Amino acid sequence: MPKFVELWVYLSTTPLFGLTATLVVYVLAHALYVRLQQAPWANPVLWTVIAIAGVLLLTDVPYPTYFSGAQFIHFLLGPAVVALAWPLWQRREELRRRWAPLLLASFIGGSASAGSALALGWAFGLPTDVLLSLASKSVTAPVAMGIAEKIGGIPALAAVFAVLTGIIGALSGKYLFDLLRVPTTSSGWMARGFALGTTSHGLGAARALQVNADAGAYAGLALGLQVVLASLLIPLLFRWL
């Protein structure tokens, strides 16, 4: 037991702690996810976040200490997003034929997502800076933070809203699509994936990739379109207003 305590004290103060804890917890959560036949509520990202947060709270390990190790995994987020382009390249002929409807759908979907969030926030009387932080909730977190900073929101809060939106979409997407009777045909998977990527960015795209290749490809496309459209249009709109 004394040796275990010494090991814990050593690990909790070095970058190795954040890296090891993240990898171990995620591998265990993913194994459970597979065992439960990829049930949406068992999403490994959700349970990894909960478990890591619980460990940090119980052990009083400062977040900067944890992130000094976890940043090595965080760095891989960029290459992972870029890798989403490969399924799109495989479907480039389809995209050439459908680029106009897809662009229009992305614009309408992003507008509905941001507009509904702002309308609900305004209806509940949220402070202006919190309200502005909600505008980019359906854009991947790093871009959402940049948008929030440009329009007067709180970047850290925008990141929280973006992550929560992604997790909620990944958890509830299947049930909502089934409720709306979106078919599981080829075109239905495209619609499901595109909708999930539009509203739930990276986490939604990851969930779509696990379920169906077409859904994953179109979710990645929607994610990219939202990044471009939101980063251009939201700051322009708020400057004009």
Number of strands: 0
- Principal-axis shape equals globular
List the total number of helices: 12
Content-based structural category: mainly alpha
What is the radius of gyration computed over CA atoms, rounded to a whole number of angstroms? 19 Å
Summarize the helix and strand pattern as letters: HHHHHHHHHHHH
Please give the alpha-carbon distance between the first and last residues: 63 Å
In short:
This protein is an all-alpha fold.
Explain this structure.
With 241 residues, this protein is mainly alpha-helical. It has two domains: 2-75, no CATH class; 81-240, no CATH class. It contains twelve helices and no strands. The longest helix has 32 residues, at 92-123.
Question: Which features characterize this protein?
Answer:
241 residues, 12 helices, 83% helix, mainly alpha
Present the secondary structure layout:
Layout: H1 2-11, H2 15-35, H3 44-59, H4 63-74, H5 77-83, H6 85-90, H7 92-123, H8 128-134, H9 141-151, H10 155-179, H11 186-211, H12 213-240
